[in-house]
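Tutorial handout. Part one gives the primary structure; part two gives the three-dimensional structure as tokens.
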Amino acid sequence: MNYLLKGVRAIDPAIGLDATRDILIEDGIIARIDPAIEPAEDMIVLDRSGEIAIPGLVDVHVHLRDPGFEYKETIETGTAAAAHGGFTDICSMANTDPTTDEAALIDYVIDKANEAGHCTVHPSGACTKGLKGEALAEMGDMVAHGAAAFTDDGRGIQDAGMMRRVMDYAKMFDKTIMSHCQDESLVGGGQVNEGPVSTRLGLAGWPAAGEEVQIQRDIALSELTGCPIHIQHLTTAKGLDLVREGKQRGAKVTCEATPHHLVLCDEDITATYDTNLKMNPPLRSRADNAALIEAVKDGTIDVIATDHAPHAAFEKEREFELAPFGITGLETSLGLVNTYLVKAGHIDYDRLVELMCINPRDILRIPQVTLEVGSVADITVFDPEKTWTVEAQDMYSKSLNSPFIGYELVGKPTDVFCKGVLTLEEGVVVAH
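Part two.
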């Protein structure tokens, strides 16, 4: 099927493009991109005047929960949520049941995602068998079957020697290790950021140092092994300084921040004990929050990723200490970034594309796409001025554990092309 996008503001900093253009998509490929293209009978015309078209959004950190926890999310519902949020590509985490630590599980995720047809899923493989940190997983076999990266996200690798062996092995395949930096001996039973808020609420504190000591460790091990390291969901000002220093030394280190850590802080957790504000790592101080925004602006943070972590209502509707960590994020990410970073004057759309399109592809070692003739048509179209309210009934995710329900945001995805296939049209996920 051939599509003609009319009147979009096409933005792609990789090729220096920021101009009003018509984009013709033929057989999944961008065939023409010109100031004006006359429609033909074989074209489906989508007039998107005033909207923005960018290379497809990529999320490097998504929990699809499938296999094993399908009551929280399935690959079908999770990828539909991704398309609804404007994403063409996502990277799934390995903390499933069974753990995604062998080739058969990589095949399972890819096959199920292809069957759903909503977006492209690049599974991560576990670094260690069963995420236990005791024995290397079959990394080479998983790479051969399509694993894009490796991570023991959800727990993190506690033993430095094991992390070194993981990096030594991953380097052979030019794969990035994505690290959940959490020293369990320091974190213990922490529930929220250690500080005045944890004291006031009477909840066990989670010290920033529990994250920072492993950031420092993993950068040092990356320098030792030459393996690229990607720090997941970084939350602290000192952690950012460690990444900055590493980058200045030439270390192969990148890092991500989540929209919720950029928008919220621990002071947003009140005496209502809203478990939708319980996440791993926890919301940090207002000062950490401000430092994250500065790091997005100055280039220290490479990627904005959601850490989409669905949980069933009955799991979250419990005492704060008993509720699981995590929130959903795929369907609110672009709106939050547009509202709180772009519209607030912190970044421009070129920087948004770097954070959410270009850099994630580099980290996952997947081909770049561009808004130029000959490129695969992975395209996200959004209305930068559309004001909308986050409503539970509008979400495609199977779980609704979002602290942003009820928020008024500016900027909403309208259309998504994934490999030239229309997966979102006028804000509605297209069934295939």
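Part three, for discussion. The longest helix spans residues 209-225. The chain has a mean pLDDT of 97.
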